[in-house]
Amino acid sequence: MGQNFVGGLYDAAFNTIFTILLFLVIRNESLIGGARTGMLLFVALTSIVGAKLLAKHSWLYIIGTLGTALSIIIFAVFQNWLGIFLFALISGLATPFFSIPLSLAILNTIDENQLPWQKKYHMLLERDGLLGIARVISYIFLLILFTIYNKENVARNWMIATAIFPLIIGLLLYKQYKIKD
User: Fold this and answer.
1) Can you give the pTM of this predicted structure?
2) Residue 23 three-state SS
3) How far apart are CA 32 and CA 5, in angstroms?
4) What are phi and psi of 44, to 5 degrees?
5) What is the C-alpha to C-alpha distance for residues 158 and 144, in angstroms, rounded to an integer?
């Protein structure tokens, strides 16, 4: 469940800030929509291969963890067309190796519980509750920072700071896999 809380701190606020910074580079809503759609299609294609590889080698979540963090840092540092391209390429390759193990972590935990399925639904509610609470906390924190400091600087620094979250999630996944082995 810890992975999901950290994921909640990371995902919603990251996507919001990423889109804002993407607009500062591209400055055209249609092109932003096209870029985001292209990125998602690339992730969909790499997910097909990623799922097959992860089924054989569960340790490949490390690629997702490191690749996601690296792509965030690259975009935070290089906020230009090259930064967008490198972010899309690296995160597109890494995302399946990050998101699939994260989803499997909760589903496998539920499956390992010996209770009948009717008594396990609360685990999904707990997961969604943790995600929601963490997302609200991250937005409140951003609101406070945006109120006090320069908005563009906060957005750029937030991108760099969020690169730590995939690494923390990777560490938590490692602990979960280590316990099972």
Assistant:
1) 0.86
2) helix
3) 29
4) -60, -40
5) 13
CA 6-156-34 angle, 5° bins = 85
- Tell me if 121 sits within 8 A of 22, measured CB to CB: no
DSSP states along 128-173: HHHHHHHHHHHHHHHHHHHHHS-HHHHHHHHHHHHTHHHHHHHHHH
CA 174 to CA 143: how far, in whole Å?
A: 32
- Taking alpha carbons only, the member of 16, 61, 11, 43 closest to residue 165 is 11
53: tokens are 């590889």
d(CA 93, CA 64): 8
Residue listed under structure tokens 């009948």 = 116
Cα distance between residue 87 and residue 81, in whole Å: 10
Q: Find the helix packing angle between 151-162 and 61-77, rounded to 10°.
A: 160
pLDDT tens string 138-166:
999 999 999 999 988 899 899 999 999 99
CB 90 within 8 A of CB 67: yes
